[in-house]
Amino acid sequence: MDTLKTIIEIASAFVLPLLIVGFPLYGLFKKVPVYEEFVEGAKGGFKTAVTIIPYLVAILFAIGMFRASGAMDFLVEGLRPLFTWVNIPPEVLPMMILRPLTGSGSAAIVLDMIQQFGEDSILVKMVATMFGSTETTFYVIAVYFGAVNVKKTRHAVPAGLLADIVAMIAAVYVVRWLFG
Amino acid sequence: MLNYIWAGLIVLSLVFGIAYDTRDLTNDTYRNGSPFEVGIVPNEGGDFSDRRTDVSVLVRAEEYRSFYNVSEAPDSSFAGVVIRTEQGLQLRFAQDVAVPEPWNTLRQETSSRDNDLRGRLVNFDASLERGAVEFAPVRFVKMHAIASAALSMAELAVELALSLIGVLALWMGLLQIAEKSGIINSLVRWTQPMLRPLFPDIPKGHPAMGMIVLNLTANMLGLGNAATPLGIKAMEELQTLNPEEETATDSMVMLLAMNTASVQLVPPVLLVALMGLQINQLIFAIIIVTTISLVVAIASAKLLGRMKRFRQSAPRAGMEG
Q1: Nearest beta carbon to residue B239 from set A39, A148, A179
Q2: pTM listed for this prediction
Q3: Under DSSP, is residue B248 helix (H, G, I), strand (E, B) or coil?
Q4: Considering only CA atoms, which of B131, B75, B134 is closest in space to residue B99?
Q5: Which of A29, A59, B169, B181 has its CA 20 to 30 A from that of A105?
Protein backbone atom coordinates (compact mmCIF):
# COMPACT_ATOMS: atom_id res chain seq x y z
CA MET A 1 0.00 0.00 0.00
CA ASP A 2 2.87 2.35 0.76
CA THR A 3 4.41 1.96 -2.70
CA LEU A 4 1.02 2.63 -4.26
CA LYS A 5 0.75 5.76 -2.20
CA THR A 6 4.17 6.95 -3.27
CA ILE A 7 3.37 6.34 -6.93
CA ILE A 8 0.13 8.31 -6.62
CA GLU A 9 1.91 11.09 -4.80
CA ILE A 10 4.62 11.38 -7.46
CA ALA A 11 2.06 11.25 -10.26
CA SER A 12 -0.02 14.04 -8.76
CA ALA A 13 3.05 16.23 -8.24
CA PHE A 14 4.35 15.82 -11.78
CA VAL A 15 1.25 15.64 -13.92
CA LEU A 16 0.49 19.38 -13.89
CA PRO A 17 3.95 20.66 -14.85
CA LEU A 18 4.30 17.89 -17.41
CA LEU A 19 0.98 18.77 -19.05
CA ILE A 20 1.64 22.51 -19.00
CA VAL A 21 5.07 22.07 -20.60
CA GLY A 22 4.24 18.95 -22.58
CA PHE A 23 1.32 20.27 -24.64
CA PRO A 24 3.18 23.26 -26.13
CA LEU A 25 6.36 21.20 -26.58
CA TYR A 26 4.53 18.51 -28.52
CA GLY A 27 2.69 21.20 -30.47
CA LEU A 28 6.01 22.75 -31.43
CA PHE A 29 7.23 19.35 -32.58
CA LYS A 30 4.08 19.00 -34.71
CA LYS A 31 4.70 22.46 -36.24
CA VAL A 32 1.63 24.05 -34.61
CA PRO A 33 1.89 27.85 -34.07
CA VAL A 34 1.69 27.29 -30.32
CA TYR A 35 1.56 30.87 -29.08
CA GLU A 36 -1.15 31.90 -31.52
CA GLU A 37 -3.25 28.82 -30.77
CA PHE A 38 -2.85 29.29 -27.02
CA VAL A 39 -4.12 32.85 -27.15
CA GLU A 40 -6.94 31.82 -29.44
CA GLY A 41 -8.10 29.15 -27.00
CA ALA A 42 -7.54 31.26 -23.89
CA LYS A 43 -9.98 33.86 -25.21
CA GLY A 44 -12.75 31.42 -24.30
CA GLY A 45 -11.84 31.59 -20.60
CA PHE A 46 -13.42 34.96 -19.99
CA LYS A 47 -16.60 34.20 -21.88
CA THR A 48 -17.09 30.90 -20.08
CA ALA A 49 -16.54 32.43 -16.65
CA VAL A 50 -19.08 35.15 -17.36
CA THR A 51 -21.60 32.63 -18.73
CA ILE A 52 -21.45 30.73 -15.43
CA ILE A 53 -22.35 33.76 -13.29
CA PRO A 54 -26.18 33.67 -13.46
CA TYR A 55 -26.27 29.94 -12.73
CA LEU A 56 -23.90 30.29 -9.81
CA VAL A 57 -25.81 33.25 -8.36
CA ALA A 58 -29.08 31.33 -8.56
CA ILE A 59 -27.72 28.29 -6.75
CA LEU A 60 -25.55 30.02 -4.17
CA PHE A 61 -28.01 32.65 -2.96
CA ALA A 62 -30.74 30.04 -2.43
CA ILE A 63 -28.35 27.88 -0.44
CA GLY A 64 -27.13 30.87 1.56
CA MET A 65 -30.69 31.81 2.53
CA PHE A 66 -31.49 28.25 3.51
CA ARG A 67 -28.47 28.08 5.80
CA ALA A 68 -29.15 31.47 7.37
CA SER A 69 -32.80 30.68 8.10
CA GLY A 70 -31.99 28.07 10.72
CA ALA A 71 -33.78 25.39 8.71
CA MET A 72 -30.66 23.25 9.02
CA ASP A 73 -30.91 22.99 12.81
CA PHE A 74 -34.51 21.98 12.47
CA LEU A 75 -33.65 19.31 9.91
CA VAL A 76 -30.84 17.95 12.09
CA GLU A 77 -33.15 17.68 15.10
CA GLY A 78 -35.90 16.08 13.04
CA LEU A 79 -33.67 13.45 11.47
CA ARG A 80 -31.82 12.58 14.68
CA PRO A 81 -34.07 9.65 15.75
CA LEU A 82 -33.84 8.11 12.28
CA PHE A 83 -30.05 8.26 12.42
CA THR A 84 -29.69 6.71 15.83
CA TRP A 85 -32.02 3.99 14.58
CA VAL A 86 -29.74 3.05 11.65
CA ASN A 87 -26.67 3.36 13.88
CA ILE A 88 -25.13 6.48 12.32
CA PRO A 89 -23.86 9.00 14.88
CA PRO A 90 -26.09 12.11 14.70
CA GLU A 91 -23.02 14.35 15.02
CA VAL A 92 -22.17 13.74 11.33
CA LEU A 93 -25.64 14.82 10.20
CA PRO A 94 -24.86 18.50 9.49
CA MET A 95 -22.02 17.34 7.23
CA MET A 96 -24.31 15.01 5.30
CA ILE A 97 -26.81 17.78 4.66
CA LEU A 98 -24.31 20.54 3.88
CA ARG A 99 -21.79 18.63 1.75
CA PRO A 100 -23.74 18.69 -1.54
CA LEU A 101 -24.73 22.31 -0.93
CA THR A 102 -21.55 24.17 0.00
CA GLY A 103 -17.84 23.42 -0.13
CA SER A 104 -16.72 26.12 2.28
CA GLY A 105 -19.57 25.37 4.68
CA SER A 106 -18.68 21.70 4.88
CA ALA A 107 -14.98 22.48 5.27
CA ALA A 108 -15.95 24.66 8.22
CA ILE A 109 -17.74 21.67 9.74
CA VAL A 110 -14.60 19.53 9.48
CA LEU A 111 -12.60 22.30 11.15
CA ASP A 112 -15.21 22.77 13.85
CA MET A 113 -15.34 19.07 14.63
CA ILE A 114 -11.54 18.81 14.78
CA GLN A 115 -11.61 21.49 17.45
CA GLN A 116 -14.48 19.84 19.27
CA PHE A 117 -13.47 16.18 19.17
CA GLY A 118 -9.76 16.17 18.19
CA GLU A 119 -8.16 14.92 14.99
CA ASP A 120 -7.95 11.37 16.24
CA SER A 121 -11.62 10.88 16.96
CA ILE A 122 -13.63 8.54 14.81
CA LEU A 123 -16.25 11.22 14.20
CA VAL A 124 -13.67 13.52 12.60
CA LYS A 125 -12.41 10.63 10.49
CA MET A 126 -15.96 10.06 9.30
CA VAL A 127 -16.64 13.65 8.29
CA ALA A 128 -13.20 14.03 6.70
CA THR A 129 -13.79 10.90 4.63
CA MET A 130 -17.18 12.27 3.60
CA PHE A 131 -15.56 15.55 2.62
CA GLY A 132 -12.76 13.87 0.70
CA SER A 133 -14.84 11.42 -1.25
CA THR A 134 -17.74 13.56 -2.47
CA GLU A 135 -18.15 16.84 -4.30
CA THR A 136 -20.25 19.94 -3.84
CA THR A 137 -22.89 18.60 -6.22
CA PHE A 138 -24.91 21.78 -6.67
CA TYR A 139 -21.79 23.85 -7.36
CA VAL A 140 -20.61 21.35 -9.97
CA ILE A 141 -24.04 21.41 -11.61
CA ALA A 142 -24.10 25.21 -11.69
CA VAL A 143 -20.61 25.47 -13.14
CA TYR A 144 -20.63 22.61 -15.64
CA PHE A 145 -24.14 23.08 -16.99
CA GLY A 146 -23.91 26.86 -16.64
CA ALA A 147 -20.87 26.97 -18.89
CA VAL A 148 -22.88 25.54 -21.78
CA ASN A 149 -26.18 27.23 -20.89
CA VAL A 150 -28.00 24.00 -20.13
CA LYS A 151 -31.06 24.77 -18.00
CA LYS A 152 -32.99 21.50 -18.09
CA THR A 153 -30.77 19.20 -16.08
CA ARG A 154 -32.93 16.05 -16.31
CA HIS A 155 -31.69 13.25 -14.04
CA ALA A 156 -28.37 14.92 -13.16
CA VAL A 157 -29.54 16.11 -9.72
CA PRO A 158 -31.05 12.81 -8.55
CA ALA A 159 -28.07 10.83 -9.86
CA GLY A 160 -25.55 13.15 -8.18
CA LEU A 161 -27.44 13.24 -4.89
CA LEU A 162 -27.93 9.48 -4.85
CA ALA A 163 -24.17 9.01 -5.24
CA ASP A 164 -23.59 11.55 -2.44
CA ILE A 165 -25.99 9.88 -0.03
CA VAL A 166 -24.56 6.41 -0.63
CA ALA A 167 -20.99 7.75 -0.32
CA MET A 168 -21.70 9.43 2.98
CA ILE A 169 -23.40 6.43 4.50
CA ALA A 170 -20.56 4.26 3.19
CA ALA A 171 -18.05 6.64 4.81
CA VAL A 172 -19.59 5.98 8.22
CA TYR A 173 -19.41 2.20 7.86
CA VAL A 174 -15.99 2.08 6.13
CA VAL A 175 -14.38 4.29 8.79
CA ARG A 176 -15.98 2.25 11.52
CA TRP A 177 -14.71 -0.94 9.86
CA LEU A 178 -11.16 0.39 9.42
CA PHE A 179 -10.74 2.22 12.71
CA GLY A 180 -13.70 1.17 14.90
CA MET B 1 -36.12 18.46 -10.34
CA LEU B 2 -33.75 21.38 -9.90
CA ASN B 3 -36.74 23.74 -10.20
CA TYR B 4 -38.40 22.18 -7.17
CA ILE B 5 -35.22 21.96 -5.07
CA TRP B 6 -34.35 25.56 -5.84
CA ALA B 7 -37.80 26.94 -5.09
CA GLY B 8 -37.97 24.67 -2.06
CA LEU B 9 -34.78 26.12 -0.59
CA ILE B 10 -36.04 29.67 -0.97
CA VAL B 11 -39.57 29.08 0.29
CA LEU B 12 -38.38 26.93 3.20
CA SER B 13 -35.91 29.56 4.32
CA LEU B 14 -38.70 32.14 4.49
CA VAL B 15 -40.98 29.75 6.37
CA PHE B 16 -38.29 28.81 8.88
CA GLY B 17 -37.16 32.41 9.24
CA ILE B 18 -40.69 33.51 10.12
CA ALA B 19 -41.12 30.59 12.49
CA TYR B 20 -37.90 31.34 14.38
CA ASP B 21 -38.61 35.07 14.54
CA THR B 22 -42.11 34.46 15.86
CA ARG B 23 -40.68 32.14 18.48
CA ASP B 24 -38.17 34.82 19.52
CA LEU B 25 -40.95 37.40 19.82
CA THR B 26 -43.30 35.21 21.85
CA ASN B 27 -40.51 33.89 24.10
CA ASP B 28 -38.97 37.34 24.40
CA THR B 29 -35.58 35.74 23.74
CA TYR B 30 -33.69 39.04 23.79
CA ARG B 31 -35.61 40.65 26.68
CA ASN B 32 -36.03 43.83 24.67
CA GLY B 33 -36.39 46.85 26.92
CA SER B 34 -35.53 45.06 30.15
CA PRO B 35 -32.17 46.10 31.63
CA PHE B 36 -29.82 43.38 32.88
CA GLU B 37 -28.10 44.04 36.20
CA VAL B 38 -24.30 43.97 36.28
CA GLY B 39 -21.48 45.03 38.59
CA ILE B 40 -19.33 47.88 37.26
CA VAL B 41 -15.90 48.15 38.87
CA PRO B 42 -13.60 50.92 37.63
CA ASN B 43 -10.01 49.95 36.90
CA GLU B 44 -7.40 51.36 39.25
CA GLY B 45 -7.42 55.16 39.33
CA GLY B 46 -10.71 55.53 37.42
CA ASP B 47 -13.63 57.32 39.08
CA PHE B 48 -16.17 58.01 36.28
CA SER B 49 -15.31 61.71 36.18
CA ASP B 50 -13.69 61.41 32.74
CA ARG B 51 -15.56 60.94 29.50
CA ARG B 52 -14.28 57.36 29.26
CA THR B 53 -13.64 55.08 32.19
CA ASP B 54 -12.18 51.62 31.77
CA VAL B 55 -14.05 49.15 33.92
CA SER B 56 -14.55 45.48 34.66
CA VAL B 57 -18.08 44.27 34.06
CA LEU B 58 -19.18 41.60 36.54
CA VAL B 59 -21.89 39.15 35.50
CA ARG B 60 -23.57 36.63 37.79
CA ALA B 61 -24.00 33.36 35.92
CA GLU B 62 -27.17 32.42 37.82
CA GLU B 63 -28.80 35.72 37.01
CA TYR B 64 -27.89 35.45 33.32
CA ARG B 65 -29.40 31.98 33.09
CA SER B 66 -32.68 32.89 34.71
CA PHE B 67 -32.95 36.31 33.01
CA TYR B 68 -32.53 34.91 29.49
CA ASN B 69 -33.82 31.42 30.27
CA VAL B 70 -30.74 29.68 28.81
CA SER B 71 -28.37 27.00 30.07
CA GLU B 72 -25.09 28.65 29.06
CA ALA B 73 -23.59 31.52 31.02
CA PRO B 74 -20.83 34.00 30.17
CA ASP B 75 -17.56 34.46 32.07
CA SER B 76 -17.98 36.25 35.35
CA SER B 77 -15.90 39.28 34.40
CA PHE B 78 -15.36 41.27 31.18
CA ALA B 79 -13.20 44.22 30.28
CA GLY B 80 -15.33 47.16 29.23
CA VAL B 81 -15.58 50.90 29.09
CA VAL B 82 -18.20 53.35 30.39
CA ILE B 83 -18.66 56.35 28.11
CA ARG B 84 -20.40 59.60 29.00
CA THR B 85 -22.56 60.67 26.03
CA GLU B 86 -25.24 63.32 25.58
CA GLN B 87 -27.90 60.64 25.91
CA GLY B 88 -26.47 59.40 29.20
CA LEU B 89 -24.03 56.66 30.07
CA GLN B 90 -23.12 53.92 27.65
CA LEU B 91 -21.46 50.63 28.53
CA ARG B 92 -19.34 48.93 25.91
CA PHE B 93 -17.82 45.49 26.30
CA ALA B 94 -14.34 44.94 24.86
CA GLN B 95 -14.27 43.97 21.18
CA ASP B 96 -14.48 40.33 20.09
CA VAL B 97 -14.86 38.84 23.57
CA ALA B 98 -16.53 35.43 23.69
CA VAL B 99 -20.13 35.72 24.87
CA PRO B 100 -22.90 33.09 24.84
CA GLU B 101 -26.32 33.39 23.23
CA PRO B 102 -28.38 35.55 23.20
CA TRP B 103 -25.66 38.17 23.75
CA ASN B 104 -23.77 36.94 20.72
CA THR B 105 -26.75 37.58 18.45
CA LEU B 106 -27.46 40.89 20.18
CA ARG B 107 -23.93 41.97 19.41
CA GLN B 108 -24.12 40.89 15.77
CA GLU B 109 -27.37 42.77 15.31
CA THR B 110 -26.51 45.98 17.12
CA SER B 111 -22.77 46.40 16.56
CA SER B 112 -21.79 44.36 13.54
CA ARG B 113 -18.94 46.68 12.56
CA ASP B 114 -17.10 47.16 15.85
CA ASN B 115 -18.23 43.83 17.29
CA ASP B 116 -18.41 45.24 20.80
CA LEU B 117 -21.52 44.45 22.80
CA ARG B 118 -22.96 47.78 23.89
CA GLY B 119 -25.98 49.19 25.64
CA ARG B 120 -27.37 52.07 27.73
CA LEU B 121 -26.23 52.05 31.35
CA VAL B 122 -29.20 52.74 33.62
CA ASN B 123 -29.73 52.88 37.39
CA PHE B 124 -26.02 53.34 37.80
CA ASP B 125 -24.69 53.82 41.29
CA ALA B 126 -20.97 54.58 41.36
CA SER B 127 -20.61 54.01 45.09
CA LEU B 128 -22.29 50.59 45.03
CA GLU B 129 -20.48 49.85 41.76
CA ARG B 130 -23.66 48.44 40.28
CA GLY B 131 -25.88 49.32 37.37
CA ALA B 132 -28.02 47.75 34.67
CA VAL B 133 -27.36 47.56 30.96
CA GLU B 134 -30.21 47.99 28.50
CA PHE B 135 -29.43 46.76 24.97
CA ALA B 136 -31.04 48.19 21.87
CA PRO B 137 -34.16 46.18 21.00
CA VAL B 138 -33.54 43.29 18.58
CA ARG B 139 -36.30 41.84 16.42
CA PHE B 140 -36.59 39.78 13.22
CA VAL B 141 -33.08 38.41 13.45
CA LYS B 142 -33.69 35.63 10.92
CA MET B 143 -35.34 37.96 8.43
CA HIS B 144 -32.26 40.17 8.45
CA ALA B 145 -30.07 37.09 8.26
CA ILE B 146 -31.70 35.54 5.19
CA ALA B 147 -31.82 38.85 3.36
CA SER B 148 -28.15 39.59 3.97
CA ALA B 149 -27.20 35.98 3.17
CA ALA B 150 -28.93 36.27 -0.21
CA LEU B 151 -27.08 39.47 -1.02
CA SER B 152 -23.67 38.37 0.15
CA MET B 153 -23.90 34.99 -1.58
CA ALA B 154 -24.87 36.67 -4.85
CA GLU B 155 -21.70 38.71 -4.52
CA LEU B 156 -19.67 35.64 -3.67
CA ALA B 157 -21.01 33.82 -6.75
CA VAL B 158 -19.63 36.52 -9.02
CA GLU B 159 -16.30 36.52 -7.21
CA LEU B 160 -16.07 32.76 -7.58
CA ALA B 161 -16.92 32.84 -11.26
CA LEU B 162 -14.51 35.67 -12.00
CA SER B 163 -11.73 33.99 -10.05
CA LEU B 164 -12.04 31.12 -12.53
CA ILE B 165 -11.15 33.31 -15.51
CA GLY B 166 -7.39 32.93 -15.24
CA VAL B 167 -7.31 29.18 -14.77
CA LEU B 168 -9.97 28.71 -17.42
CA ALA B 169 -7.99 30.78 -19.90
CA LEU B 170 -4.79 28.87 -19.13
CA TRP B 171 -6.35 25.47 -19.67
CA MET B 172 -8.42 26.42 -22.65
CA GLY B 173 -5.27 27.77 -24.27
CA LEU B 174 -3.34 24.59 -23.54
CA LEU B 175 -6.21 22.42 -24.74
CA GLN B 176 -6.39 24.35 -27.99
CA ILE B 177 -2.74 23.44 -28.61
CA ALA B 178 -3.46 19.85 -27.59
CA GLU B 179 -6.31 19.67 -30.07
CA LYS B 180 -4.40 21.19 -32.97
CA SER B 181 -1.36 19.01 -32.39
CA GLY B 182 -3.41 15.82 -32.29
CA ILE B 183 -2.88 14.90 -28.63
CA ILE B 184 -6.61 14.81 -27.96
CA ASN B 185 -7.16 12.59 -30.97
CA SER B 186 -4.70 9.96 -29.84
CA LEU B 187 -6.14 10.13 -26.33
CA VAL B 188 -9.56 9.45 -27.80
CA ARG B 189 -8.23 6.46 -29.75
CA TRP B 190 -6.60 4.92 -26.68
CA THR B 191 -9.43 5.30 -24.19
CA GLN B 192 -12.44 4.90 -26.46
CA PRO B 193 -12.89 1.14 -25.89
CA MET B 194 -13.07 1.62 -22.12
CA LEU B 195 -15.30 4.67 -21.91
CA ARG B 196 -17.54 4.01 -24.92
CA PRO B 197 -20.14 2.00 -22.95
CA LEU B 198 -20.62 4.92 -20.55
CA PHE B 199 -21.01 7.50 -23.28
CA PRO B 200 -22.68 5.63 -26.14
CA ASP B 201 -23.95 8.76 -27.88
CA ILE B 202 -20.49 10.21 -28.53
CA PRO B 203 -19.47 9.31 -32.10
CA LYS B 204 -16.24 7.38 -32.62
CA GLY B 205 -13.16 9.57 -32.69
CA HIS B 206 -14.90 12.68 -31.34
CA PRO B 207 -12.68 14.99 -29.23
CA ALA B 208 -15.29 15.08 -26.43
CA MET B 209 -14.02 11.69 -25.26
CA GLY B 210 -10.48 13.04 -24.92
CA MET B 211 -11.63 15.98 -22.79
CA ILE B 212 -13.63 13.63 -20.59
CA VAL B 213 -10.54 11.49 -20.04
CA LEU B 214 -8.46 14.53 -19.10
CA ASN B 215 -11.18 15.74 -16.74
CA LEU B 216 -11.54 12.40 -14.98
CA THR B 217 -7.76 12.01 -14.69
CA ALA B 218 -7.35 15.45 -13.14
CA ASN B 219 -10.14 14.62 -10.71
CA MET B 220 -8.51 11.37 -9.75
CA LEU B 221 -5.21 13.08 -8.99
CA GLY B 222 -6.92 15.64 -6.78
CA LEU B 223 -6.18 18.54 -9.14
CA GLY B 224 -9.44 20.38 -8.55
CA ASN B 225 -8.16 23.57 -10.17
CA ALA B 226 -7.38 21.83 -13.44
CA ALA B 227 -10.34 19.44 -13.34
CA THR B 228 -12.94 22.21 -13.52
CA PRO B 229 -11.72 23.84 -16.78
CA LEU B 230 -11.21 20.41 -18.32
CA GLY B 231 -14.72 19.41 -17.32
CA ILE B 232 -16.14 22.62 -18.75
CA LYS B 233 -14.27 22.00 -22.00
CA ALA B 234 -15.68 18.45 -22.08
CA MET B 235 -19.18 19.88 -21.58
CA GLU B 236 -18.61 22.30 -24.44
CA GLU B 237 -17.58 19.44 -26.71
CA LEU B 238 -20.66 17.46 -25.65
CA GLN B 239 -22.80 20.52 -26.33
CA THR B 240 -21.70 20.48 -29.98
CA LEU B 241 -23.38 17.05 -30.23
CA ASN B 242 -26.55 18.23 -28.51
CA PRO B 243 -29.52 18.84 -30.80
CA GLU B 244 -31.45 20.69 -28.10
CA GLU B 245 -29.27 23.42 -26.65
CA GLU B 246 -30.95 23.93 -23.26
CA THR B 247 -31.41 20.30 -22.28
CA ALA B 248 -28.75 17.98 -20.86
CA THR B 249 -27.92 14.88 -22.92
CA ASP B 250 -27.39 11.46 -21.35
CA SER B 251 -23.64 11.86 -21.78
CA MET B 252 -23.68 15.23 -20.00
CA VAL B 253 -25.58 13.74 -17.08
CA MET B 254 -23.11 10.84 -16.96
CA LEU B 255 -20.11 13.17 -16.95
CA LEU B 256 -21.68 15.30 -14.26
CA ALA B 257 -22.56 12.32 -12.08
CA MET B 258 -19.00 10.99 -12.38
CA ASN B 259 -17.69 14.40 -11.40
CA THR B 260 -19.91 14.74 -8.35
CA ALA B 261 -18.82 11.29 -7.25
CA SER B 262 -15.29 12.66 -7.63
CA VAL B 263 -13.09 9.63 -8.02
CA GLN B 264 -10.14 10.53 -5.87
CA LEU B 265 -6.82 8.81 -5.40
CA VAL B 266 -5.33 11.93 -3.87
CA PRO B 267 -7.37 13.80 -1.24
CA PRO B 268 -8.31 17.40 -2.10
CA VAL B 269 -5.79 20.06 -1.07
CA LEU B 270 -8.26 21.71 1.29
CA LEU B 271 -8.76 18.53 3.29
CA VAL B 272 -4.99 18.00 3.53
CA ALA B 273 -4.69 21.52 4.91
CA LEU B 274 -7.41 20.87 7.47
CA MET B 275 -6.32 17.44 8.63
CA GLY B 276 -2.53 17.67 8.39
CA LEU B 277 -0.67 14.37 8.69
CA GLN B 278 -3.78 12.57 9.89
CA ILE B 279 -4.84 12.47 6.27
CA ASN B 280 -2.47 9.56 5.62
CA GLN B 281 -4.69 7.26 7.64
CA LEU B 282 -7.72 8.27 5.65
CA ILE B 283 -6.47 7.86 2.09
CA PHE B 284 -7.48 4.23 1.97
CA ALA B 285 -10.94 4.95 3.40
CA ILE B 286 -11.44 7.75 0.89
CA ILE B 287 -10.46 5.52 -2.03
CA ILE B 288 -12.94 2.84 -0.98
CA VAL B 289 -15.80 5.29 -0.43
CA THR B 290 -15.14 7.21 -3.60
CA THR B 291 -15.13 4.00 -5.64
CA ILE B 292 -18.48 3.02 -4.17
CA SER B 293 -19.91 6.43 -4.98
CA LEU B 294 -18.54 6.27 -8.54
CA VAL B 295 -20.27 2.95 -9.11
CA VAL B 296 -23.52 4.34 -7.70
CA ALA B 297 -23.20 7.49 -9.80
CA ILE B 298 -22.69 5.53 -13.03
CA ALA B 299 -25.47 3.07 -12.21
CA SER B 300 -27.97 5.76 -11.25
CA ALA B 301 -27.16 7.93 -14.27
CA LYS B 302 -27.74 4.90 -16.50
CA LEU B 303 -30.81 3.56 -14.72
CA LEU B 304 -32.54 6.89 -14.13
CA GLY B 305 -31.93 7.69 -17.80
CA ARG B 306 -34.07 4.70 -18.68
CA MET B 307 -37.01 5.93 -16.62
CA LYS B 308 -39.91 7.06 -18.73
CA ARG B 309 -39.95 10.72 -17.79
CA PHE B 310 -36.22 11.19 -18.30
CA ARG B 311 -36.22 9.17 -21.53
CA GLN B 312 -38.97 11.37 -22.90
CA SER B 313 -37.14 14.55 -21.98
CA ALA B 314 -33.93 13.46 -23.70
CA PRO B 315 -32.83 15.86 -26.44
CA ARG B 316 -33.59 14.53 -29.89
CA ALA B 317 -32.62 15.79 -33.31
CA GLY B 318 -35.48 17.65 -34.96
CA MET B 319 -37.13 18.52 -31.65
CA GLU B 320 -35.70 21.98 -31.59
CA GLY B 321 -37.89 25.07 -31.83
Answers
A1: A148
A2: 0.83
A3: coil
A4: B75
A5: B169
Residues in chain B with CB shorter than 8 Å from the CB of A174 are 285, 288-289
User: Of B138, B156, B182, which marks where a domain is finished?
Assistant: B138
Contact B235 A23 (CB under 8 A): no
| Interchain proximity A171–B285, CB inside 8 Å | yes
Contact B142, B16 (CB under 8 A): yes
* Residue B2 located in a structural domain: no
Contact, A103 vs A67, CB < 8 A? no
| Buried-exposed string B39-74: b where 16+ CB fall within 10 A, e elsewhere | bbeeeeeeeeeeeebebbbbbeeeebeeebeeeeeb
Q: Cβ(B13)–Cβ(A61) under 8 Å?
A: no
Q: Is the pLDDT of residue B164 over 90?
A: no
The ipTM is 0.87
Could you tell me which residues come within 8 angstroms of residue A64 by beta carbon, excluding any fewer than 6 positions away? B149, B150, B152, B153, B156
Domain that residue B188 falls in: 165-312
φ/ψ (deg, to 5) at B118: -145, 150
Q: Do the domain assignments include residue B19?
A: no
pLDDT tier at A44, thresholds 50, 70, 90? confident
Prior bond of A89 cis (ω within 30°): no
Residues of A in contact with B218 (CB under 8 A): 15
Give residues 73 to 102 of A whose Cβ lies within 8 Å of B. 74, 100
Instruction: Note whether A3 contacts B: Cβ–Cβ < 8 A.
Output: no
Interface contact flag, B2 A60, Cβ < 8 Å:
no
Q: Taking CB atoms and an 8 Å cutoff, what residues of chain A touch B224? A: none
pLDDT for A129 beyond 70 = yes
Q: Alpha-carbon dihedral of residues A120, A126, A130, A131, nearest 10 degrees?
A: -20
Three-state SS at B113:
coil
pLDDT of residue B188: 87
Identity of the residue in B177, B245, B267 whose CB atom sits nearest the CB atom of A27:
B177
**B189 lies in a domain?**
yes
C-alpha distance from B191 to closest chain A C-alpha (Å): 18
* Whole-number Cα distances in Å, B29 to A122, B20, B37, B59, B140: 36, 11, 17, 18, 11
